[in-house]
Structure formats: C-alpha cells, structure tokens
Specification:
It is a single chain. The chain has 165 residues and is α+β, with helices and mostly antiparallel strands. The chain folds into 2 domains: 104 residues, NusG, N-terminal domain (Alpha-Beta Plaits, 2-Layer Sandwich), CATH 3.30.70.940; 48 residues, SH3 type barrels, CATH 2.30.30. It is built from 3 helices and 14 strands. Strands 1, 2, 5, 6 and 7 form a 5-stranded antiparallel β-sheet that branches. The protein has a 5-stranded antiparallel β-sheet with strand order 13-12-11-10-14, with no helix packed on it. A two-stranded antiparallel sheet has the order 3-4. The longest helix is centred in the first third of the chain and has 11 residues. The chain is elongated and about 60 Å long. It starts with a strand and ends with a strand.
C-alpha cells in the first residue's frame, strides 16, 4: 500500500474523506490549518484546508483505484498524462502528520527581524513591498515601513498579511 494524492472538487474535501473512510474503509489524510482572518469587523479563527482540493489516501492500486475514481466529488488521482497516479513519499505524509496538533497542522511563523524585506499578501496594501521596523505583540502584529514611489509610510499589519521576500 502506498500514499496517493486525490484531486477533488473544491469544497468537497471533507465529504470525500468521510465517504472513503466510512464506506470504503480507506485511510485518508486531509490536512487542515487554523488561521486568523479579519471578517465582519473582527478577527475570527477559521479552518482551512492546507491543500485546497487535494487529499491524501493510503491505497492498494488493484483494490482501491476503481472505488476512489467513482466516489462522488473525486475528480482524479494526481498522476501523469497516461493516467498513472504518482506515489506520494511516506516521508512527506509523516512530516505533515508530525506537525498535526488537535487535528490541525501547526505552521511555524517565520521569525521577523528588523530590516527584513517583506511583501504584503492580504488587505488593502496587498502587493506592496516594505521592511520590518519591529514586532508589536509576539507573533501577532508588526510595524512595517511601506516603500512606495513617492512615500514612505509606517503601517501596522497582522503578521498573517505578510511574507518575507
């Protein structure tokens, strides 16, 4: 038995996982993360799939491929153009499972230091570059010097909005 990646319809990851596990008796790994997001004028913790539209499953090719292919919500097994599915290294699955706490993958926040170059990934300043001035609260907010053509402005952003470049 090997691990395979299954491409499913967006939003059907949990349904396909449940169907394969309960009805077919197939082991499934559907990694999720908890993320803070600003919605409805406040911060909320939301569940998201680590790999939207993809789940992993431990399968015996001769026995399970037909069952998986015809499960509602499954698009295909991830593979080459000839239709042969790729085997996912067990080391990758183990790496992800080792980082699972209470059903969610724990992602390490990159350590931000003064002067680090960043790009804003979300919010009204999305796409702009800047540099870290300092962190305000541990792993929550950061003060950034925004670099634009005509202006250098200090702004406060959630750590989740930025990525190191």
């Amino acid at each position: 038995m090997d691990w395979y990646c299954i491409y499913v319809k967006r939003g059907h990851e949990d349904d396909v996982s449940a169907t394969l596990t309960t009805r077919q008796g197939i082991e499934v790994f559907n990694p999720k993360i908890l993320r803070k997001r600003f919605a409805r004028s406040r911060w909320q913790e939301v569940q998201e799939h680590l790999f939207p539209s993809y789940i992993f499953s431990l399968l015996e090719p001769e026995r399970h491929f037909h069952l998986v292919r015809y499960t509602r919500g499954v698009r295909q097994l991830v593979g080459n153009r000839a239709g042969e599915p790729y085997v996912v290294s067990p080391d990758i699955i183990q790496f992800l499972q080792d980082r699972t706490r209470d059903g969610f993958i724990v992602l390490d926040q990159p350590r931000l230091n003064r002067g680090d170059k960043i790009r804003i990934q979300e919010g009204p300043f999305m796409g702009l570059d800047g540099e870290v001035l300092f962190e305000l609260k541990p792993n929550e907010r950061v003060m950034v010097l925004l670099n634009t053509l005509e202006l250098k402005a200090k702004i406060e952003l959630p750590v989740q909005y930025i990525a190191k470049i």
